[in-house]
Structures are given as C-alpha cells and as structure tokens.
Automatic annotation (TrEMBL):
GO terms for biological process: protein transport. Keywords: Cell membrane, Coiled coil, Cytoplasmic vesicle, Membrane, Transmembrane, Transmembrane helix, Transport. It comes from Phaseolus vulgaris (Kidney bean). This is Secretory carrier-associated membrane protein. Residues 22-33 have a biased composition (Low complexity). The keyword Cytoplasm does not apply. Belongs to the SCAMP family. Residues 41-68 form a coiled coil.
C-alpha cells in the first residue's frame, strides 16, 4: 500500500451541478397545474358573469316598477321624521314650493301644538285624578290623545301637505272640511263647558276655575292647559285664513266647484 493512498474511510466530496441534469430530470414530469389554474379561473369568471347578469336583471325590474309607479302618479314616501325614530314622511324644504313653506311650517307647528296640548291635558287631568276627581276624566283624556294625535295627522295635516305639494283642489277641500272641526275642538277644549263629566276631562277655563277652589296646584295646571289651547286656536285660525287666501287666489276654488258640479251631474245621470 502506498503511503499516499487515500483513506478508504474518508468521504469524498463530490460537486454536483444542480442544473446539469435538470432537463433530464424534468423530462418525465407530468405537472399540469397550469391547466387546473385555467379551469378554476374560467369557473370563477362564469360565476361572476352570472351574478352580474342577475344584478342587471334585478335593476331593470326595479326600474320598470319605479317607472310604472311614476306613471300611475304614486309617490313613494320614505319615513324620515322624527330623525331618531322615523314614523312619517316629512320634508317641507324639498317638496313644498318656497312661497308656501312658511304656511306649511306653521301648519306643522299647529299639529305639534295639538299633540302638546293633549299631552299636557293628560298631565293636568292625572293630577286632578290623584287629588280625588275620579278615574273617568283620566280615561277620557287618554282617549283624546290616542284619537287626536294620529287622527289629526291623517285627517288634516297630511292632506294639507299633499295639497301644497301637488296643488290638488280636492285635497284642499278635504283639508278645509276637517280643519274647521279641529278649530272647533280647540275652542271647545279652551272653554271646557260642563257637559261631559263637568268638563274636567279638558283643561279649559271653566274647568280651571272649578278645580282652583279645591286645589291650587291642579288649578294652575288647568290654567296652563287653557293657555295652550288658546294659542293653538289662534294659530289654527291664522293657518286656515292663509291657506284659504292662497286657495282662492290660485283659482283652485273655481276648480273645486267645477269638479263638484261635474260629480253631482255624473251622480244624477
């Protein structure tokens, strides 16, 4: 053995070029990831196209319905008032002509004023009940509020709002008819004659004088309610005067008379 013979137990360092036989190693590869990727992309494209077509179809259907509603004269009213809990649609600044907005705002104040009057009426009558007047007047006060607050909005404020917006003679006529009843009720409540349970279910002047002798606090509450109903009556009279002046000046009175005459003639025929 030669002294220069290599050690048989020593590991021999073999340098391997990783790129030398790469081509040879890859010859037998059957990787088809590109095909799978292409198929997946095409499937997603088809799904997106189907969704887009469905959205377009829905948009066209919605537009068709909106056009049909518009042609029929139906206005979609989105509830937006009060802002914290919308229950009615109300937008004087955008829907009412500028020259009528002042009247409409004051008419809206009379509706809110009526609600305030009826709420205070409950407070005053509740105080009278606690002081010994009996529960019947309290139940009547609750009935006034439950029927008066929503009833006034439906029967005269909303017709006036729509009359101002659409300039409809028929809606103006309905407003006048019901608003006169509203004014009559406010005047009746401000007086509170002793007709129904001695008039103590309403905070009018006569009821205030009657309860003042029994209890000063109840009498003060009734006098405050009397003031509310007086203010409501005065504002309501001003509103109906202003609306009537506009109604006559715009020629809607003649239109309403002509429509009424035409309706009477058709009914007779």
């Amino acid at each position: 053995m030669s002294r220069y013979d290599p050690n048989p137990f020593e590991e021999e360092d073999v340098e391997v070029n990783p790129f030398a036989d790469g081509q040879a190693k890859g010859k037998g590869s059957s990787y088809s990831g590109g095909a799978f990727y292409t198929t997946d992309v095409k499937a997603k494209e088809k799904e997106l196209q189907a969704r887009e077509a469905d959205l377009k179809r829905r948009e066209q259907e919605l537009k068709r319905r909106e056009d049909a509603i518009s042609r029929a004269g139906i206005v979609i009213e989105e509830k937006n008032w009060p802002p914290f809990f919308p229950i009615i649609h109300h937008d004087i600044g955008k829907e009412i002509p500028i020259h009528l907005q002042r009247i409409q705002y004051i008419a809206f104040s009379t509706w809110l004023g009526l609600v305030l009057c009826l709420v205070w009426n409950i407070v005053a009558v509740t105080t009278a009940w606690i002081k010994g007047e009996g529960p019947t007047i309290w139940f009547l006060a609750i009935i006034y509020f439950i029927s008066g607050a929503p009833g006034s909005y439906v029967l005269w404020y909303r017709p006036l709002y729509r009359a101002m917006r659409t300039d409809s003679a028929l809606k103006f006529g309905w407003f006048f008819l019901v608003y006169v009843i509203h004014i009559a009720f406010c005047i009746f409540a401000a007086v509170a004659p002793p007709i129904i349970f001695k008039g103590k279910s309403l905070t009018g002047i006569l009821a205030a004088i009657d309860v003042l002798g029994d209890n000063a606090l109840v009498g003060i509450f009734y006098f405050i309610g009397f003031g509310f109903f007086c203010l409501e009556s005065v504002l309501s009279i001003w509103v109906i005067q202003q609306v009537y002046m506009y109604f006559r000046g715009s020629g809607k009175a003649a239109v309403l008379k002509r429509d009424a005459a035409r309706g009477t003639m058709m009914a007779a025929l």
